[in-house]
What we know:
The complex is a heterodimer. Chain A is mainly β.
Amino acid sequence: GQQLNQSPQSMFIQEGEDVSMNCTSSSIFNTWLWYKQDPGEGPVLLIALYKAGELTSNGRLTAQFGITRKDSFLNISASIPSDVGIYFCAGQRAAGGTSYGKLTFGQGTILTVHP
Amino acid sequence: GAVVSQHPSWVICKSGTSVKIECRSLDFQATTMFWYRQFPKQSLMLMATSNEGSKATYEQGVEKDKFLINHASLTLSTLTVTSAHPEDSSFYICSARAAGGKNIQYFGAGTRLSVL
């Protein structure tokens, strides 16, 4: 099925550094979501974005919903070792049609943080 | 809030047997649940959408007779992998979407299926 273009695929950073990752799509989404997945676990919701241009923070995490509704980014400031994991973006379309409620996922960004 | 429990977390079975995976929303009612499959180092791929009281909607290429889904209540959906084969070995994850609210999907912890 369709996937979002998420980059980078992987990142190796030092503790304390900031991290930025983004997702782009050729089609419009009405909701953008960012999830984190630890090995052997299900994804955990980090941030949900509902309006174009919206900028939302959750602790050291900040995410934005692009104005065109075709992209989103996630920033992590002052990374710590427990930030290690796979980060997924996901887009969701509006009500109506067969795609309602379904999530389209990015390929994921594998984050490694060296102490 | 918004806790989704998935059971079992790990199952090993012999080829040809059937395996049932349960997905429960513990503190909210879920009119819709979703079942995903994830291969190592890959993203989540939607298998089917499960609506309470009606037949599941399967994604293209997913065999409905192979992956039986039942959503008998607002808090429980089950996925049964019938006549499992080694190629069915994967990580299966469910999610639940609360009735009303902001249409957010909350995920279970996943089930690792190994078919010998």
